[in-house]
């Protein structure tokens, strides 16, 4: 199948895609709350594109940045918090812009 056509990938497929051992994926699942693959009816792990992206981030933190498991986990947590804060601030800004626009509308004469 072509990339991005599947909704779920099994452990061995993901391990081959990212270039690590399947046992590392299972280990990281215990250490990183961001990595939580779904389970099918046979209790097999099913990874989504989001899960694979998290795995790539973990690998980057460990291999390229030289972080420990704890350091990588903390870095991912901070990244998620900052993205959430940006999202919230964007929504507040949008609300305030709409509010300002509503206040500046002149009343229509009766």
Automatic annotation (TrEMBL):
Gene3D superfamilies documented for this protein: 1.10.1660.10
SUPFAM superfamilies reported in the protein's UniProt record: Putative DNA-binding domain
Record-annotated HTH merR-type domain positions: 8-78
Keyword Transit peptide: no
Keywords annotated in UniProt: DNA-binding
Pfam families: MerR_1
Coiled coil: none
UniProt keyword annotation of Transit peptide present: no
Record InterPro entries: DNA-bd_dom_put_sf, MerR-type_HTH_dom, MerR_fam
Transmembrane portions of the chain: none
GO molecular function, a single term: DNA-binding transcription factor activity
Protein name: Transcriptional regulator
